[in-house]
Amino acid sequence: MLQTTVKALISGLSGLVFERVNIMKRIVSILQIIFILQVAPVGAATIALFPFEDFSTNSGIGAKLITEIVSSQVELAGHVVVCPAELNDFMGRHRIRQYGVISSEQAQLAQKELGIDYILLGSVMLKEERQTTATASIFTLVRAADAHVVWSYVDSYSLADHQAMFNLSGPSNLEDLWTLLALDAFAELPEIMLANLLPEQESGNIIVEHSEPNLQIDFAAFHPRHVKPGENVNCSVRFRTLNISEEGEPTVFIKVGSRVHTAQTDDGFEYEVSWVATEGNPGPPFKLAMNDPDLFYRGMWDSENLEAGYPVNIVVEWPSGRHDELYIGSYIVDSTPPDLKLIASAKEYNNRKIFRQRLPLTVRWGRPEKVDRWKLAVYDQENKQVISTKGTAEPPASFLWKGTNSSNKKAEEGLYSVVLQVWDLAGNRTVSTEEVYYLPELPEVELTPVVSPEDESIQLALFLDHEPLVPLKYWRLEVWASNNDLLSFHEGTNFPESITLAALDSINVDDDIDAKLMVLDELGGEMVTSFKGLYAMAAALQEMDQTQDDTQKSSGSGWDEGF
Amino acid sequence: MVFSSPFIALAWRGVALTFRSAEAQSFIVCCTLIFLQGCSLGQQEPLYQQLSETPGQPLCRLVVLPFANHTESSQAGAVVTKIFASSLQRAGYSVALEGNVRQLYQQLRIRIDDEVTQEHYRIIAAQLQADALVIGKVVEFQENVEKGRLDPTVAFEVGLMETGSQRRLFTTYFKKTGKNYRKVLHFGLINTLFRLTRIMSDDVIEQWINKGLHTCAPS
Fold first, then answer.
1. Arithmetic mean of pLDDT, B69-78
2. Where would a tag sit more exposed on chain B, N or C end, judged by fewer CB atoms within 10 A?
3. What is the CATH number of the domain that holds A540?
4. CB contact under 8 A, B82 and A123
């Protein structure tokens, strides 16, 4: 009956709407005339129109208008709308700052304090830009007693919707659109409110079977979430106060896996209790603190020895005998260090990894695992740290050491340990070490020229100043005249015993020959050495040898004499 | 405007006189309906993927988690979340209050755009006593102005996770513009993002129900 009346009213009003007058006032007055003649429905409900969330930039206008319209409609249908001032007080008291949403706890508080049956929530949007003028809204009717959504509505109107149809006269501005939208949205609202009243509410005796969770947790936290076997786990839980104050002090348990940690409540803030397994076997003690004023529960227990994930539930037993159980999270007992290995990519010579300029290091995982932190460091033979880097979470898949120290200077040649340490979330540590030899330079090459007295040819002897750690790969000797003519070249993989350079036609001090020696080793290191004036070098060496011989002779005679 | 032309009016009068019988007029009406229907046949269905077998039992209580927002519109996630929850409610599901979900996000220190872990899903499901979680993201949410008219475009991906088994049941990707719903001339055109999102949400939920997702609504 009511629905039919409202629909008839809407169609009758359409003429007024299209006349582009201040239709809202007309609608309200006509509604009043019609409904004054009607008898208010039996079992009228009370509704709180919470402020609407406004998605538009020029907020407030649409929300205010639509609030007025819906107020008129539900009031005229015999329902009661909570006074805005009273609602504002309620929102302020309970710090409800977010418009358009409400929690079940807040809904139930509103039912209790404001005596309401329903809450209307809304989100609205309006846009006023010539032909793209549009309105949109999402409305939700929540039954306060059980915080159950009984009705919802989403729609949107734009001027384009109406002007497209053969250019008939239609709504011309935002206010017209809002009115149309509100009339459409709330035509059936009064009947919906009646239809969804709970039987107990109608009789005035409110006993509600909550559809929302009885046990509402305000705060729950674990520390740590990953533990080694036997380490302490701390858990803090705070409940909301709403139902607890009504039903009396509950007994709180913490159930970990199949074990139930129980508490005695007779001696204050912190006390020791023992847990019992479901089989009835007593286990090690744990502490549970209860701070009554805040209803703040804190539990601490030793973690299990077996590696696994352990679900934690809060169990609450109320004086009425009701039993609530709520999952609040889980923790992992972990005794296995991360399974990974550091691998240095360097060539091996005599079971030793040797690198020259760059040492690529790769982290290879056996079993992927979440990581808390890591540290990579290089230590010398005296176990002194040369360079290091560290980070949180997973280490990079690869590193590169350029053979420098923490001052970014080249480290000395020698044996180093590259150590990667990784800690998992439970604190288990893995250490992976690679021994590497840093060889920044090739050995020095020495060249000895000897001039043959017979034919003035030169015998060249090449040798390294010490035995190389890395074999030579290639060498090349070029002999150059002073006029930049290449006289000859010699090459190979190993140094020969000697190289003979044929005598030149004209040799004098001003017209000497030079040599340039290039050596490559298997690590790709290259060394180029120039030797200027081989004849002069030979002469100098001969002179030096002569001097040494003379010295030996003179000292030898002295020895003999003394002997 | 078109019908005001004397020539067309005359032609129309001629057609009416020709098909004066009831059968002929019915034939014309049927042809018109077929034409209008034909215009809407090009509409595409949501791209649906079934990931697990649909549970035999109805999923009564659903929790709609805030949709991740991958668009440039700052409100897209919030709007689509609300509209999808509203569509589910109208389809007969009991939907947890948005305020409860937000409170739990705050408690678990999850921000809307954060990645939600399996552990979070378990806690949310347990604390809000949900049979299934609705998880989604908005990919497009924009209005283009063409010749003074708005042409909205919405694209979102939405999935359903059964909380008991932690299995993803469905995932659906759906993209539409206001023009996609045009039937003939301007009929059927959708000019606003909200209405387009509502229709798309209704379409997705209808598809899920057709694929075997039962509601708890009394028949």
1. 91
2. C
3. 2.60.40.10
4. yes
